[in-house]
């Protein structure tokens, strides 16, 4: 496997690991107060002028989108929108009389939420396109369409669950080990740490 492909696979794992925290992050960002616009003030200019926006060939973007979809990263977006709906329903639990209408509203918003997901897929594709050439993306797409690539994506959720658990155990163990070692070494220098 090429170094670039290995890097992309590692990135896919990290993206999936972070996906679980996205609803909390997005919710927290949505809660940040924004300063009201001053009357007569001009809207803020975008941080990156349009002239500096990179352009990609349609094929480059199509390949990047295929990597986003084939790698399983887009699957992580699928869990975010229903999580928002559940958060809204949980907030409304004090008003059981709203349950039926709320369910209907959330169902009616599904097409809009699908558009929101597609926008995130396009954003992810542009990020891949900005980091990988068409040739690299072609190689990566071929991997994800191979038997091994399909198996990788199929097993990714279980593997990530096990990695997260292993990391929690490892983090606790290393933390304790490091403290024991630091105390021992500091003790050799005449310092006692609690």
TrEMBL record:
Leader sequence segment: 1-28
Residue intervals of the DUF2059 domain: 120-175
Residue span of region Disordered: 30-55
Swiss-Prot/TrEMBL keywords: Plasmid, Signal
Protein name from the UniProt record: DUF2059 domain-containing protein
Lineage, top ranks: Bacteria, Pseudomonadati, Pseudomonadota, Alphaproteobacteria, Hyphomicrobiales
